[in-house]
Specification:
Keywords: Cell membrane, Glycoprotein, Glycosyltransferase, Membrane, Transferase, Transmembrane, Transmembrane helix
Distance between the termini: 80 Å
Shape: elongated
Protein name: chitin synthase
Enzyme class: transferase
Number of strands: 2
Strand order of the largest sheet: 1-2
EC number: 2.4.1.16
Pfam family, one: Chitin_synth_2
Helix content: 40-55%
Strand content: 5-15%
Oligomer: single chain
Number of helices: 3
């Protein structure tokens, strides 16, 4: 008989906490993010990338859903190296 008391308490706790857990999960519709007035800095390190790779990366970052006045693309050309398949160095390509 005394063995059922902890079991009943455990069941009672689970039954009362279940609605709290479900409400914390917020099972409502998905909200779209709010547009904020913040700055964004995109740091792009490049070492031996070719023109195609750099163009795709920069085009992708330029098309981000941020105001162009608040977006800064910071391109770092690390080294004066000619990569395989390139005819000039990465800083010259950029």
């Amino acid at each position: 008989m005394l063995l059922y008391v902890p079991l009943c308490q455990s069941i009672a706790i689970r039954l009362t906490s279940s609605p709290l857990v479900l409400s914390a999960l917020q099972l409502s519709h998905k909200r779209s993010p709010e547009m904020q007035d913040k700055f964004i800095l995109c740091q792009i390190p490049c070492y031996t990338e070719g023109e195609d790779s750099l163009r795709r990366t920069l085009d992708s970052l330029a098309s981000l859903n941020y105001d162009d006045k608040r977006k800064l693309l910071f391109i770092i050309c690390d080294g004066n190296i000619i990569g395989s398949g390139n005819d000039c160095t990465t800083p010259r390509i950029v």
